[in-house]
Amino acid sequence: MKTSGIIAAVAALAMSATAAFAEFKPAVVFDMGGKFDKSFNEGVFNGVEKFKAETGVEYAEFEVTNPSQREQALRNFARRGHDPILAIGFAQAEALSKVAAEYPDTRFAIIDMFVDLPNVQSIEFKEHEGSFLVGMLAGLASQTGKVGFVGGMDIPLIRKFACGYVQGVKAANAEAEVFQNMTGTTPAAWNDPVRGGELAKSQFDSGADVIYAAAGGTGLGVLQTAADEGKLSIGVDSNQNHLHPGSVLTSMLKRVDVAAYETFKSGMDDTWKPGSQILGLAEDGVGWALDDNNSSLITDDMKAAVEKAQADIIAGTISVHNYMSDNSCPD
Amino acid sequence: MSTASDQLPRWITLGVIPFLNLLAAFVVSGLVVLLIGEDPIEAVGILIWGAFGFGEGVGYTLYYTTNFVFTGLAFAVAFHCGLFNIGAEGQAYLGGLGAALVCLHLDFLPLPLIALLAIAAAALFGAGWAFVPGYLQAKRGSHIVITTIMFNFIASALMVYLLVNVMAPPGKMAPETRTFDESARLPFMHAALEWIGIDIPQSPLNLTFFLALLCCLLVWLLIWRTRLGYEIRTVGISPSAAAYAGISTARLTVIAMAISGALAGFLAVNEIMGVQHRLLLDFTAGYGFVGIAVALMGRSHPVGIFFAALLFGALYQGGAELSFEKPKITREMVVVIQGLVILFAGALEHMFRPQITALYHRLAPSPKPSEA
């Protein structure tokens, strides 16, 4: 008896989807990390929450728990008339290209991957550029000439962070030594602050005095250890300067929240455009954080040097090698 | 095997008791749903509708069922030999490597041949991964629970290494192999049925489902109709009696583990060759662990395992549908409901047994002549 009611409800839902086309119903599909991963997915969550708070428009969301749910979730939203549909993370690219082809009239967007379809907006970031700048800051701030990098899961994307960082460090101090550690080889590596702290400790013990954590939730352990040891750390994705004022040198910003917000906003204003967007320094998609919490750590010389590098990168006079263009990093 | 079950007819042990356990699980889940402010009856309605109410839902349910049948059977075969193989996850992961190698490098062959080779490779790699813990248990006494779970971690690390450093095409963002050619993909059920003129909605359900059914039959034949199965069960019930009867416990430990690993490896046929069409990280997604619950709930019998797998398939698919319909019921809530089913059906399976037994004997006095 209850099921018939539900079927009716679903039928009504399907009808309203076709009838009330004007209704704006955005949807977001988070990936396996979940929307509270303290990192990437959560950045998106903050972006879409901001959208909701500003416009009052409810959005639908789904957190996938296994690989085959990606396609199911995207298709489910498309069938129910949601638009635009935002897919989070490169892992959803395969599923998205399938579903987007099936629903050519629905607008899709994906973050961190390029999908070549007329109804898909692909948003990628030049993490190597942002990492280059924080690498320079690390190289300039280091007293010992040794700095560290703690990555999350060992995947090409994180090596891209590491590679940009190393280039930045060397640009500031050609003699500098960079220790690199990846936290792990499974997705658990994104959320292992204890291990992050241990890796940071061992890098500090080897003489490093600045460590860049590109490791999601694991990075919180790195930042904590740096604060405990009286050393410096660099946060990632969102501005983490406030976590340990005076110890977090800066944060490499990757504005997924802005990207998510913009996707929904442009979808609502009808200014949404398909195609590729690669957000680097020039587009304010990546950057470094300077606020009250770290202004005492950044000297005017450091600031000037980094701002010059930033201008040079935007102008094209400095080119930062992208690890993922050829899966290798120059020494 | 147990004396308790002799006092009750089979329809009670296999029908009434599992049903009561399930009911208890749903009642407690209902309370949890009530607690977060949703209507439990409606939630159950959506769950059942999501799993069986429409074509695509049924397809997803049966696709999950396929996975659980493999891991459930894998656990059951080892369990019959007294071995607690909790390494199906890793064995399936390695099975994926075997299947993917065939699909990537032998895709010039015709599909039926690739399919056979991929199935064989998945079985071989899965069996190989289970063989080592089996051997260590048999010859060195290393406990199988410890070694198999550690092998899960090793499998995970190995696969990440291979996918990141060796198998991923350069420049590809995700650590996964290239997509297989059309000729190296198992047909989806909707595609296969279209050839013979039947139209069903799209879903990941593919021909591997039939392999799962076949495996149910083969495991039943193996365990209850062959000499090897008899030996396996003997070792499982009493290793000392088996040794007294001249059965080599060590040999059977290794064999049972290898068979178990091969069955777990078939999960990869469904996932890699049937659905994802590429080797990717963590495609096993916990199916190996749920397989333990499936086997325990199904009393390690293929028929029971099939229905337990169907139940868990329905919970997975219905649960996903539930979190679509009800934003308040998050995926964590769905895991809670699944966990309660595992708790009541697997861990507390004998909770109601004394009462049921007492009730049964009061209502139906034993007609045994020994009473007279």
Notes on the protein architecture:
- The complex is a heterodimer of chains A (331) and B (372).
- Chain A has 331 residues and is an alpha/beta fold.
- Chain A is built from eleven helices and twelve strands.
- Chain A folds into two domains: 21-125 and 257-279, Response regulator (Rossmann fold, 3-Layer(aba) Sandwich), CATH 3.40.50.2300; 128-254 and 299-326, Response regulator (Rossmann fold), CATH 3.40.50.
- Chain A has helices spanning 2-19, 40-55, 67-79, 93-102, 127-141, 156-172, 193-205, 218-229, 256-269, 300-315, 323-326; strands at residues 27-30, 60-63, 85-88, 108-111, 120-125, 146-153, 177-184, 210-214, 232-237, 248-254, 275-279, 286-288.
- In chain A, the strands form two sheets. A six-stranded parallel β-sheet of chain A has the order 2-1-3-4-5-11, sandwiched between helices. Chain A has a six-stranded mixed β-sheet with strand order 7-6-8-9-10-12, sandwiched between helices.
- Chain A is globular, with a radius of gyration of 21 Å.
- Chain B has a domain at 71-301.
- Chain B has helices at residues 10-35, 40-52, 55-80, 88-105, 111-140, 144-167, 189-195, 208-225, 227-237, 239-244, 249-276, 287-297, 302-325, 331-347, 353-363.
- Chain B is globular and about 70 Å long.
- The chains are: A alpha/beta (331), B mainly alpha (372).
Count of DSSP H/I helices of chain A: 11
Radius of gyration of chain A, whole Å: 21 Å
Q: Tell me the series of helices and strands of chain B, N- to C-terminal.
A: HHHHHHHHHHHHHHH
Largest sheet of chain B: none
Biggest interface reads: A-B, 38 and 42 residues
- CATH domain topology of the largest domain in chain A: Rossmann fold
Give the biggest beta sheet of chain A: 6 strands, parallel
Beta-strand content of chain B? under 5%
The CATH class of the largest domain in chain A, by name, is: Alpha Beta
- Rg on CA atoms of chain B, Å: 22 Å
Question: What's the number of domains of chain A?
Answer: 2
The average pLDDT of chain A is 88
Low-confidence runs of at least 5 consecutive residues of chain B: 1-5
Distance between the termini of chain A: 69 Å
Helix count of chain B equals 15
Structural class of chain A: alpha/beta
